[in-house]
């Protein structure tokens, strides 16, 4: 049975409302987590649970629409990277069993209108800004921990256009998702600076913190948002913060006799999750910040080109067309 990943639960309240010493203490806790497993559960983060529940509700209403209607908002341009991606249309080296909707900050040409889903856009826009505010605070916290100067990340995120993603993993037979090369989402690292991840209570998210091939469960923890380091932050910190592999598979929860008897253990329930991927300004150059005597482990990359190239790798735009 998969063990549980050792991911710290950190209260963010002392960073938002505390003294300078409190802020530094939280910054150290975050940095310790990000430089080891690469993940943290953040609680008291300022986004009310009722709002998070509301967004899960919106996701359910959206994904419950007929496929033909969802396809009218199809994501088809990696530079715009906004809209709907059907189950099977992502081509990232394996077979995922999921469908997604991406929402952006500045333009959402492929978004349901108020006549399709009355509150969808305004509520998502609002949630987007709550996630952006929290994400920028987390970056500030990291800048303090690494003595980069409080506004280090502010300077490279003034026009940042992160990606709010709604994911639906449909109910599916276990034997389908457990085939070789299949998963709800196959092992990957995220490629921006960091990701905020809200998950429902179903479970199945696993991380391989030290890249040993031993995936461990990152169980849902009520009232928290998971934050994980992504590839650009790893490059920027010359590997000090770690972007680690993760995947979503069958939850390893105990099966009750009752569920076994009537066959419910053979079918996974639907799962929903909401990642928010934070990317820097497209013109930012991501150059490793070195400590004295240290050699750069990564080449400088342009954040905009990096994002488009990695988005293209993940989607088979032809298949989706
Ligand atoms: O659904 C999840 O919990 C993880 C999603 C994820 O890793 C991703 O979209 O990059
Ligand atoms: Fe991910």
Mean pLDDT: 93
> What would you call the structural class?
alpha+beta
The succession of helices and strands, N to C, reads: EHHEHHEEEHEEHEEEEEEHEHEEEEHH
Radius of gyration: 19 Å
Q: Oligomer, anyone?
A: single chain
Q: Please tell me what the overall shape is.
A: globular
CATH topology: Jelly Rolls
The biggest sheet amounts to: 8 strands, mixed
Straight-line distance between termini: 41 Å
CATH architecture: Sandwich
What percentage of amino acids are in beta strands? 15-25%
Total DSSP helices: 10
Heterogens = 2-oxoglutaric acid, fe (ii) ion
Give the count of structural domains: 1
**Major sheet strand order:** 1-2-13-10-16-6-5-3
DSSP summary, beta strand count = 18
| pLDDT < 50 runs, ≥5 residues | 317-321
CATH C-level label: Mainly Beta
CATH superfamily: B-lactam Antibiotic, Isopenicillin N Synthase, Chain
Key features?
single chain; 321 residues; alpha+beta; Jelly Rolls; 8-stranded mixed beta sheet; 4-stranded antiparallel beta sheet; 10 helices; globular; disordered C terminus; binds 2-oxoglutaric acid; binds fe (ii) ion; IPNS-like_sf; oxidoreductase activity
Account of the protein in words:
There is one protein chain. It is globular, with a radius of gyration of 19 Å. A hairpin with a 7-residue loop joins strand 11 and strand 12. The chain has a single domain, classed as Jelly Rolls (Sandwich). The C terminus is likely disordered. The protein has 321 residues and is α+β, with helices and mostly antiparallel strands. The chain has an 8-stranded mixed sheet with strand order 1-2-13-10-16-6-5-3. A 4-stranded antiparallel sheet has the order 9-14-11-12, with no helix packed on it. A two-stranded parallel sheet has the order 4-8. It is built from 10 helices and 18 strands. The site of 2-oxoglutaric acid has 11 residues, from strand 6, strand 10, strand 14 and strand 16.
């Amino acid at each position: 049975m998969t063990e549980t990943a050792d991911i710290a639960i950190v209260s963010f309240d002392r960073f938002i409302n505390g003294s300078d010493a409190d802020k530094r203490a939280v910054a150290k806790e975050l940095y310790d987590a990000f430089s080891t497993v690469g993940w943290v559960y953040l609680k008291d983060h300022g986004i009310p649970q009722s709002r998070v529940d509301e967004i899960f509700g919106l996701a359910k209403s959206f994904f419950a629409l007929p496929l033909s209607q969802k396809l009218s908002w199809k994501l088809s341009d990696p530079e715009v990277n906004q809209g709907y991606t059907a189950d099977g249309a992502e081509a990232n080296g394996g077979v995922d069993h999921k469908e997604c909707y991406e929402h952006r900050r500045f333009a959402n040409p492929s978004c349901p209108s108020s006549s399709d889903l009355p509150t969808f856009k305004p509520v998502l826009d609002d949630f987007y800004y709550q996630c952006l505010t929290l994400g920028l605070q987390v970056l500030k916290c990291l800048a303090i921990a690494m003595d980069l100067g409080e506004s280090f990340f502010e300077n490279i995120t003034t026009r940042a256009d992160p990606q709010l993603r709604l994911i639906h993993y449909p109910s599916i037979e276990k034997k389908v998702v457990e085939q070789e090369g299949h998963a709800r989402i196959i092992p990957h690292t995220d490629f921006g600076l960091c990701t905020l991840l809200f998950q429902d209570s179903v479970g199945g998210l696993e991380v391989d913190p030290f890249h040993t091939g031993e995936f461990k469960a990152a169980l849902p923890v009520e009232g928290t948002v998971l934050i994980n380091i992504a590839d650009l932050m790893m490059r920027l910190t010359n590997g000090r913060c770690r972007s680690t592999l993760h995947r979503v598979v069958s939850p390893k929860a105990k099966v009750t006799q009752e569920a076994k008897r009537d066959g419910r253990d053979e079918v996974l329930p639907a799962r929903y999750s909401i990642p928010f991927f934070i990317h820097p300004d497209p013109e930012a150059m991501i150059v490793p910040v070195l400590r004295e005597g240290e050699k750069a482990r990564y080449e400088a990359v342009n954040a905009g080109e990096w994002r488009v190239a990695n988005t293209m790798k993940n989607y088979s735009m032809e298949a989706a067309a």
